[in-house]
Design a protein that fits this description.
By secondary structure, the chain is mainly alpha-helical. The protein is built from six helices and no strands. It has one domain: Cytochrome c oxidase, subunit III, four-helix bundle (Four Helix Bundle (Hemerythrin (Met), subunit A)), CATH 1.20.120.80.
């Protein structure tokens, strides 16, 4: 019986949830890589259009969101460490801060979107904004996808039984770090790869 592998025992030595998350993130990396690659190709082919359109983006709001997400990565890591050590109070503290950072990101993005709409800028305005709204919107959906289990885990931690599944929190942490990493790439690609002022080419 010593060589028998039970169904609930991961053959790889990695918890099934963590392994599944790594597979999911690998597929997401390929998906976003396609976004970035096509954006760069189209940018180079339409540099005048992309440069002019990018001038309407608010780099300072984007920088604020970058700082917020980087901070949330830190607090998520601290929440994982806290639950592994059985420190309920610190887990609740750091998870709450992470959730607040996630909501802050969405609120800032809301104001950024409404500013674009008020200036009659929409996803169909031009090719640049099609990519802008598609990539940032898709990323925003990932942020919402992370908030839902965060809130659920936090609420469970306040119940009588508490919440002690550190593996699931660690898996969620992997997902959240990926969400942050994607934004770290989106920020320079969308906001910083263009001149601050555009001078039409001389023909």
């Amino acid at each position: 019986m010593s060589g028998l592998v039970l169904d609930h025992e991961p053959v790889s030595g990695i918890p099934h949830g963590k392994l599944a998350m790594w597979v999911f993130l690998a597929s997401e990396i390929m998906f976003f890589t396609g976004f970035f690659a096509s954006f760069i190709v189209l940018r180079n082919a339409n540099i005048d259009l992309f440069t002019n359109s990018a001038q309407a983006l608010n780099k300072w709001l984007a920088l604020l969101n970058t700082i917020v997400l980087i901070g949330s990565s830190l607090t998520m890591a601290l929440s994982v460490l806290a639950i592994e050590k059985g420190n309920k109070r610190n887990f609740q503290l750091y998870m709450t801060i992470t959730i607040l950072c996630a909501f802050t990101f969405l609120i800032v993005k809301y104001f950024e979107y409404t500013s674009k709409f008020s200036h009659h800028i929409y996803p169909w305005t031009d090719l640049f904004y099609s990519y802008y709204f598609l990539t940032t919107g898709f990323h925003g959906m990932h942020v919402i996808g992370g908030i839902i289990p965060m809130v659920w885990m936090l609420m469970r931690s306040f119940t009588k039984k508490g919440y002690h599944n550190h593996v699931r929190v660690e898996v969620l942490g992997l997902y959240w770090h990926f969400v942050d990493l994607v934004w770290i790439f989106l920020f320079p690609v969308l906001y910083l790869m263009f001149p601050t002022s555009y001078v039409p080419p001389i023909h």
